[in-house]
Write a structure and sequence with these properties.
The protein is mainly alpha-helical. The chain has a domain at 2-58 and 149-305. It has 15 helices and no strands. The protein has helices at residues 2-29, 31-56, 66-83, 91-108, 112-128, 133-164, 167-185, 197-202, 207-216, 226-232, 234-256, 258-261, 268-287, 289-295, 297-322. Helix 1 packs antiparallel against helix 2 (31-56), helix 4 (91-108) runs parallel beside helix 6 and helix 6 (133-164) packs antiparallel against helix 7. The protein is globular and about 60 Å long.
């Protein structure tokens, strides 16, 4: 039985490398279109199935209702984004940071009194801290997007590899990094690629992610028109290829490990509800992409927040494996 399990793990790892290569090729050719497709079709199914799986795992926290507090924070993000848009640049980043701090408390602390004290101290700390614009970019823009889909995915994979210690597993996490780097090293052939008006309009909500990643990687051009920089230049296409690859593989990685994670083992009623909601969400995107984005904004943020404890657990496992604690 052990050999069969190992073989299955190897097959999954090699399949994942294949999925990485497929995602990379598509990202090179049609970066904006691939992202929009993956986000609209694969994204909602990933949110729904992962939340269901996290619920079975008690969200990797020590309290039964910890997820409620993280969910409330998502409600606040939605409220300050669409219901009553905030004029402050730090409100939503502060909510996200508080979500991370709460997740840390939920993962490591069980005593309710200590939890309350630490939660209050976290609020006070965030309130009195003076954060610069870099904080807004990293916590408000990068963390729930590219850090979530690339860094956290890599950490989740690495944690699993350290437990299984398989050659194919190590190869897969190395491949993920090398492919990501390739977007900034390999010059894609001239494909006469142009971003259509529909694609540009549909992608508008994510525009700032590209803008700040271009600046972060030092890919600025002489163009002063920021939108032209994102949608028409080589710098813009390099970053978009990386984003499209990261998001697409993030979703495919989840679905490829069904037999390992077993997220599909839920009551039939739950599975049917999930499928109906998924089809409904895809239909919304087909009708109007921006309507789909707004309708699923809460769900997308919810899965990010509810995954924070898992991300923390993954990094904890990595640290324990790399730096064993002496007993």
């Amino acid at each position: 039985m052990f050999k069969l399990s190992a073989l299955n793990n190897d097959q999954i790892n090699y399949a994942n490398i294949g999925l990485m290569l497929l995602s990379a090729v598509l990202a090179f050719v049609l970066p904006f279109e691939l992202f929009l497709f993956s986000y609209a079709v694969l994204g909602p199914l990933h949110y729904l199935t992962e939340i269901g799986w996290l619920h079975k795992k008690n969200y990797f926290t020590k309290g039964k209702y910890d997820f409620v507090f993280l969910s409330v924070l998502c409600v606040l993000v939605f409220y300050f984004s669409y219901v009553n848009p905030t004029q402050s640049q730090t409100v939503i980043p502060n909510i996200i940071l508080y979500g991370i701090l709460l997740a840390l408390i939920f993962v490591f602390i069980k005593d309710n009194l200590y939890r309350i004290v630490l939660a209050v101290l976290a609020i006070i700390g965030i309130s009195v801290s003076k954060m610069g614009f870099d904080y807004v970019i990293w916590v408000g823009i990068f963390l729930p997007t590219i850090i979530h889909v690339f860094i956290f995915t890599w950490a989740f994979m690495f944690y699993g590899v350290l437990k299984n210690k398989s050659f194919s597993g190590y190869l897969s996490i190395i491949a993920l990094v090398l492919i990501a780097v390739s977007f900034f090293v390999i010059k894609a052939p001239g494909l006469q690629y142009e971003v259509s008006a529909y694609v540009g309009k549909s992608y508008e909500l994510f525009y700032l992610l590209n803008k700040f990643l271009i600046e972060f990687f030092g890919l600025e051009s002489t163009l002063t028109d920021e939108r032209a920089l994102v949608y028409t230049t080589n710098a813009g296409f390099i970053v978009m290829r990386f984003i499209a690859f990261a998001y697409t593989y993030h979703y495919l990685n989840w679905f490829s490990k069904t037999s390992v994670i077993q997220w599909h083992k839920v009551p039939k009623k739950t599975l049917y509800i999930t499928l109906v909601l998924w089809v409904f969400s895809v239909v919304l995107y087909v009708i109007d992409y921006n309507i789909g984005l707004k309708a699923l904004y809460f769900l997308s943020f919810l899965h990010v927040f509810l995954e924070f404890p898992l991300n923390i657990t993954s990094f904890q496992g990595i640290i324990k494996s790399v730096i064993p604690v002496k007993k």
